[in-house]
From TrEMBL, chain A:
Stretches assigned to coiled coil: none
Location in or out of the cell: Cell membrane
Topology within the bilayer: Multi-pass membrane protein
TM segment ranges: 25-54, 84-112, 124-148, 168-193, 238-259, 279-300
Main location: membrane
Domain (ABC transmembrane type-1): residue spans on this chain: 89-299
PANTHER family: BLR7065 PROTEIN, SPERMIDINE_PUTRESCINE TRANSPORT SYSTEM PERMEASE PROTEIN
Name recorded for this polypeptide: Sugar ABC transporter permease
Lineage: Bacteria, Bacillati, Actinomycetota, Actinomycetes, Streptosporangiales
Xref: Gene3D superfamilies: MetI-like
UniProt keywords, alphabetically: Cell membrane, Membrane, Transmembrane, Transmembrane helix, Transport
Domain of life: Bacteria
Keyword Transport: yes
Family: Belongs to the binding-protein-dependent transport system permease family.
TrEMBL record, chain B:
Pfam families: BPD_transp_1
Family of the protein in this entry: Belongs to the binding-protein-dependent transport system permease family.
Keyword Membrane in record: yes
Primary localization: membrane
Membrane-crossing segments per the record: 20-41, 79-98, 110-131, 143-162, 195-224, 244-267
Domain ABC transmembrane type-1: 75-267
Record's keyword annotation contains Cytoplasm: no
Name listed for the protein in its UniProt record: Carbohydrate ABC transporter permease
Species name: Actinomadura alba
Keywords: Cell membrane, Membrane, Transmembrane, Transmembrane helix, Transport
Signal peptide start and end residues: none
Record localization: Cell membrane
Membrane topology: Multi-pass membrane protein
Domain of life: Bacteria
Length: 307, 283
């Protein structure tokens, strides 16, 4: 849900004067409904985690209605489970491959290439990339399944030109979901970088070009330093979004074959709902929440001056 | 002298690099378009498989077949969930944002930090505890409870956006209304909200779109088929064992995608600037 945006734009010049101090009722009443909802449905479940993760709560059976405290058993089991480490490593690879490398770099490249191109090109190319982002995640999953399936588009195109077909979703499941997620998420990075680049003055580039700076030098010494903040916020945002991707992988590979593309969200889903171990699933949830919290805290530090 | 010589050497190079840029952009655009091909062609093909191929006979039969009462109900459920969550978000986020924007609160900053921090937490992760909680409170299969949960998960970001849009409305206009005897509430509703209508629209549309596209939450919390939204129903087309009717799947996907694309296009056209994202964050 961290679909927040860039810190590229400067602070608005005219901020409203915020001199008033509201009376207690003046702020308590308007904020109460939001606070109540968040307490019940956001903070509540998170706190509930810290109870359930230490129980043997199950979906059905005796430990469903009457769970027992089991101490750290869930965590001990988790850290002894090879599948958990596999899921953790796959999550790291998925985030690094699809967000940090894929979406981030492709988004930056697209934004740079589109800068100072004809408006019609920007509209068309930008529109196509954004449409991949607007499509609901589950539909994106179907489309990529159809593209990469054994009898899918890619294989029929390959055989048409005489190349061997491949069982992409079976042999390269992680790469398949990474590519699908790059396709789906690049628009966000592109939009963030486009906004950031639009604030890099053209004359800086021209002056450097006159002084004989190469394109690479200009990128390194002018563009990148000026969009550093936007890049950091973008990286944090897409990392947080990608950490919790479930639907796309669920549709394309279901985490398989075996556990070869089972990232932490899919692992948690399987343990909690397929194997009925809610307590254990909650322990996995706590690990994911902790990772999310750490990244979120870094993100917050980056944005701190902007609040 | 220098500018002239520079100009003459960079002009051809510039033309080459421009051509290269257009080339790369064209390739990327085509690559991004390719997966869409199957969706459109299969939806018009009564015998669609997984390959992108023009149908032997173009037909709208898939669409007609997909628009059966069960599926229409699923769309209705989607509208109830998404519209409900979006409306509720406005009703709750607007008053909550007001003190954050207008008052000099001692805890104003911590609250904003907490909201921003919450936007980063993975909602996927809390689905297991939420399910457990819903079971214990006997709320599984409750549409209102699911709507409230969907509202709550989007609320931190909604309040954050709303506060920033509100910051963009000069306080002097509101003060003029007070002088004329309007209460703070009246001033908010009559003066501030109309002036930040684009922002209100963005918050509404954003919430609607994310809820509409959300699969995991209703998949976990709504088990009765007659209560499930289109996002979950569509998965059953696909997840069923045996022969998948790919033409129907594609047609349903298009119908399911159309509302969010239309909303996005509308907001984009009227408000401009990539969903006003920058505005959403920076006011």
């Amino acid at each position: 849900m961290a679909a927040s945006a860039s810190a590229a734009s400067p602070r608005p010049a005219a901020r409203p004067a915020r001199g008033r101090r509201g009376s207690a009722l003046g702020w308590a009443i308007p904020m109460a409904p939001a606070a109540g909802l968040l307490a019940l449905f956001f903070v509540g479940p998170i706190l509930w985690c810290f109870w359930a993760a230490f129980t043997n709560l199950a979906l059905t059976g005796a430990s469903a209605s009457d769970p027992e405290m089991v101490g750290l058993a869930n965590f001990r089991e988790m850290f002894a489970d090879g599948d958990f480490y596999s899921a953790a490593m796959l999550t790291v690879a998925f985030v690094a491959g699809s967000a940090i490398i894929g979406q981030n770099c492709l988004g930056l490249i697209l934004a740079m290439l589109m800068r100072s191109r004809k408006a019609v090109v920007r509209t068309v190319v930008g529109g196509i990339v954004v449409s991949a982002w607007v499509v609901p995640e589950i539909v994106a999953g179907f489309m990529w399944y159809a593209f990469l399936a054994d009898e899918g588009t890619l294989n029929s195109a390959l055989t048409a030109v005489g190349l061997p077909a491949n069982e992409w979703l079976y042999e390269l499941p992680l790469l398949s979901v990474i590519i699908a997620n790059v396709w789906r998420g690049t628009a966000f990075s592109m939009l963030v970088y486009s906004a950031a680049l639009s604030e890099v003055p053209d004359d800086l580039h021209e002056a450097a070009a006159v002084d004989g700076a190469s394109a690479v030098q200009r990128l390194r010494h002018i563009t990148l330093p000026l969009i550093k903040r936007a890049a950091m916020t973008n990286l944090m945002t897409i990392t947080l979004q990608t950490l919790s991707v479930f639907t796309l992988i669920f549709v394309m590979t279901g985490g398989g074959p075996g556990i070869k593309s089972q990232t932490l969200p899919l692992y948690m889903y399987q343990e909690a709902f397929k194997f009925s171990q809610l307590g254990y699933g909650t322990a996995v949830a706590i690990v994911m929440l902790t990772i999310g919290a750490v990244f979120s805290a870094i993100y917050l530090r980056l944005l701190r001056n902007e609040v | 002298m220098a500018p002239v010589s520079v100009g003459s050497t960079t002009a051809p190079r510039r033309a080459v690099s421009a051509a290269a840029a257009y080339g790369v952009l064209a390739v990327v655009a085509v690559l991004f378009l390719v997966p869409f091909g199957w969706l459109f062609l299969a939806s018009l093909n009564a015998e669609a498989g997984l390959t992108t191929e023009p149908p032997a006979e173009f037909t709208l039969r898939n669409f007609a077949e997909v628009l059966n009462p069960d599926n229409l109900r699923a769309f209705g459920n989607s509208f109830v969930l998404s519209g409900g969550a979006a409306l509720l978000t406005l009703l709750v986020a607007t008053p909550a944002a007001y003190p954050l924007s207008r008052y000099n609160l001692r805890f104003g900053r911590p609250v904003l930090y907490a909201l921003l921090f919450s936007t980063g937490l993975p909602i996927t992760a809390i689905m297991v505890p939420v399910y457990g909680m819903f079971v214990q409170l006997e709320l599984v299969d409750s549409v209102p409870a699911t709507t409230l949960f969907l509202t709550a998960t989007g609320l931190p970001f909604a309040i954050w956006m709303m506060k920033n849009f509100m910051d963009g409305v000069p306080v002097s206009l509101e003060e003029a209304a007070w002088v004329d005897g309007a209460s703070a509430w009246k001033a908010l509703v009559r003066v501030v909200l109309p002036l930040m209508l684009p922002g209100v629209t963005v918050v509404f549309v954003f919430t609607f779109m994310t809820t509409w596209g959300n699969f995991f939450v209703p998949f976990v919390l709504l088990l009765a088929p007659e209560k499930q939204p289109a996002a979950v129903t569509i998965y059953q087309f696909f997840g069923q064992q045996g022969e998948v009717a790919y033409g129907l799947l594609a047609a349903y996907s298009i119908l399911y995608t159309a509302p969010v694309v239309a909303l996005y296009a509308l907001v984009q056209r009227t408000l401009g600037g990539a969903f006003a994202m920058q505005g959403a964050v920076k006011g």
